[in-house]
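Lecture 7 notes: from sequence to structure.

We start with a single chain of 420 residues. Read the sequence below before looking at the structure.
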Amino acid sequence: MTRLLNVNNYHYRRGGSEVVYLEHALMMEGRGFECGYFSMQHPRNEPTPWSRYFIDEIEFGHEYSLTEKLAMAGKVVWSFEARAKLARLLDAFPADIVHLHCIYHHHSPAILSLFSERGIPAVMTAHDLKIACPNYKMRTHDGPCERCRDGSVWNVVRHRCVQNSLAASAVVAVESGLHRALGTWRRHLAAIVCPSQFFVDKFVEWGWPRDRFVHVPNWVDAEHFEPGFEPGGYAFYFGRLVLDKGLATLIRAAHAAALPVKLAGTGPDEAALRALAAGLGADVEFLGYRSGVTLHDAVRGARCVVLASELYENAPMMLLEAMALGKPVVGARIGGIPEVIDEDGTGWLFDSGSVEALAERLAAVKAMPDASLVVMGRAARAHVEQHFSRSRYLQAMLDLYAHVGVRLPITAAAGLRVTE
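Now the structure, written as tokens:
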């Protein structure tokens, strides 16, 4: 069997990148690959026999002693632990290909050279902008930021880009500077998958060769999403409660449009968002963490789903899932969001950060006839089925694996079209 090693910081469904990591592996197992996993110990991890090789847990929001913090800082820059444990895993599981997702700050880029040393092609999905931007999102206190493109990584320290912390920003600056100097990412990755064309273009602007990238959109298995096309009476957001997602803009705009809004999720800015809603007297309901049926019910009950991001989004799973559930979506015109939405067909775009523009759009959605929203919801569902399907994603990934020299399992290779 062809052995695929899947690598990610977390081995549970913590967010969109973890969902892609786990679902990708399951998809490949279904096509005849034997899958191994390399991740971090965590109490919420899904069970796997490979956990005996996982690195020790690091959670940067927890309280640690000074000695522990210094050890963690060292691991961010270069994790000897991760290299040693990965080497033992590869002895037991001689992979034919490795697919990496999010590894920085836990495994560190130090593990990448092991794959080159053992002749294993390494493919990575760029869920964010880390291989270019030290703080991974090209955003700091004053909005979208690309200062490090033509300047020093010490901009990260100057602007305290990481958690608004001088110490954390300094550690990440050292990590980024070291691996830029060593060329770690560029030397040891055979190919980089970008779910959005925006990310491909942005990396090229930052000096990466275009031929290193493959644009493969995310997917939704629409069969697992039962749509509800009838519109409800509120705008809806689900995901992490962080200001980068434009949630303060959403609350202000929904209040101005007199449209109730519901937020599902948790996050570090929840208290600030609750205070904002209370101060405005806005009709905002915080639902807490939702998943599965309870989350889908909340989406189906909405009038529209809104992603008001104020950072360079990639290809948000939230929007794809909302459309699979039959809802028109409202998205900020930033990053890869416009690639997901067929404007005036499956949803609408507005200028990121503009309370006035979003309020105008939400007021229009509130006033739209229910029948018109049903039509858009059906179009949204069809759009996902056609352009963001599981089969399209699978074919593109198998093409890529073949292109980097992997011998595919017979069941995977059947009907394969290799794209040069």
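The chain is about 40% helix and 15% strand. Keep this in mind for problem set 3.
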